[in-house]
Amino acid sequence: MMNFQQIFGASPETEASAPGRVNLLGEHTDYNDGFVLPTAIPQQTTVQLGFSKDGLHHFYSVELDERVTISEGHHTPSGFASYLFGCIRLLEREGYTVPPVNVHVTSSVPIGCGLSSSAALEVATLRGLRSLLSLPLDDVQIAQLGQQAEIQYAGLNCGIMDQMAASLADTHSMLFLDTRTLERRVLPFPAEAEILVIDSGVHHSLAAGSGYNQRRAECEEAARLLGVKALRDITHPQAVESIPEPLRKRSRHVVTEDNRVLEAIQGVSAKRFGELMNASHTSQRDDYEVSVPEVDRLVAILQETPGVFGARLTGGGFGGACVALVEVGKVDGISREVIERYGRSGFTGRILVPEVS
Ligand code: GLA
Fold first, then answer.
1. What's the pLDDT tens digit per position in 157-176?
2. Are strands 57-61 and 101-107 parallel, antiparallel or unpaired?
3. I need a labelling partner for 274 at 20 to 30 A (CA). Which of 48, 93, 138, 249 fits?
């Protein structure tokens, strides 16, 4: 691996990290002003920063072995550099002066799995710039700037969940977040349970042209027809029955999903939490239509495996990883069995959490 010194010929001035996240419940609710329940994963993105001497920004990604130079009047670059560029531009628009910087990025957050590698990169970059330039930004502002970088420079009209999780969550607890008020609570996992995350092997991309932005537009149209500011304002699923399909089923998912999160944070048992996860998957598959056959297969195998309380697709969907809640102490046996059965279906799964070193 090429380190900062080898790439830029000097030592870094500062370093910052941020984790990926896995969402346990509350999918596609954040851009509807609703409720989410993510936790951080052990995998992190780390940026090292220093001042650039030639007047230009230089970005280097270890994993991609790619170097990008931003010249004066440069348009938004593509790939990993778009996130760094977006963070810098947003700070400038906030009125901060960002001198030319060298940024070295390394990450163990899996890409295209629904575990928010992009939010980890945005939050790590903003933390790094905050530290390098002594910017007076708190962790919520960092998350909000990261979300705007994603929307304006990466083309994904996302909610605030991922950046809030990368900025505020830890791996030992669940972060309950009301995405309208940003009220949040740090909660323990259900008793006697731990988290298992498996990649389905089907990689997703949510950016421009994906079903993600389309789903968001459908939700906004549904809220307009229902006469509410956002679908969060509807508490009873019955209330959406009057609007036409597919808006009816899209809203039904959001309303029932919000209710599942609100039940899950009441300190329910692992068994009940798992049932809520299973119901969430069914709702994502049938009403929100963001699953794919491989993910459905993996979720079904997980749900059938003894010791698993519940399982669902996690993240933006259209591929990516599944999250399961499993009995404490059984994660190794369960992982082996599930990967083997999934393999016999002709697919290749990969355990992402717990992290195998
Ligand atoms: C992506 C987005 C989030 C959220 C999830 C779905 O991860 O970035 O804002 O909408 O999808 O829950």
1. 999 999 999 999 999 999 99
2. parallel
3. 249
* Ligand 1 centroid to residue 154 C-alpha, Å: 14
The answer to whether residue 54 is catalytic is no
Query: Are residue 73 and residue 103 in the same domain, yes or no?
Result: yes
Whether residues 177 and 305 share a domain: the answer is: no
Considering its fold, how many domains does the chain have in total?
2
Type of residue found at 109: V
Size (the chain), residues: 357
Which atom of ligand 1 is nearest to 36's Cα? 12
Supply the CATH number for residue 325's domain: 3.30.70.890
Average pLDDT, the chain: 96
Of the listed 30, 33, 162, 258, which one is catalytic? 162
pTM over 0.85: yes
Kindly give the distance from the C-alpha atom of residue 243 to the centroid of ligand 1, in angstroms, as a whole number.
24
Instruction: Give residue ranges with CB within 6 A of ligand 1.
Output: 23, 27-28, 30-31, 116, 158-159, 161-162, 315-316
> What per-residue confidence (pLDDT) applies to 207?
59
Q: Decide: 171 and 42 in contact? Cβ < 8 Å.
A: yes
Q: How far is the CA of 115 from the centre of ligand 1 (A)?
A: 10
Question: Which residues span the domain enclosing 96?
Answer: 4-186
Q: What is the 3-class SS of 7-40, one letter each residue?
A: HHCCCCCEEEEEEEEEECCCCCCHHHCCEECEEE
Question: pLDDT tens digits for 269-298?
Answer: 999 999 999 999 999 999 999 999 999 999
Same-domain check for residues 74 and 213? no
Question: Which atom of ligand 1 is nearest to 160's Cα?
Answer: 9
Query: 263: number of CA atoms within 13 Å, CB side?
Result: 18
Residues 156, 274, single domain; the answer is no
Are residues 213 and 301 both part of a single domain?
A: yes
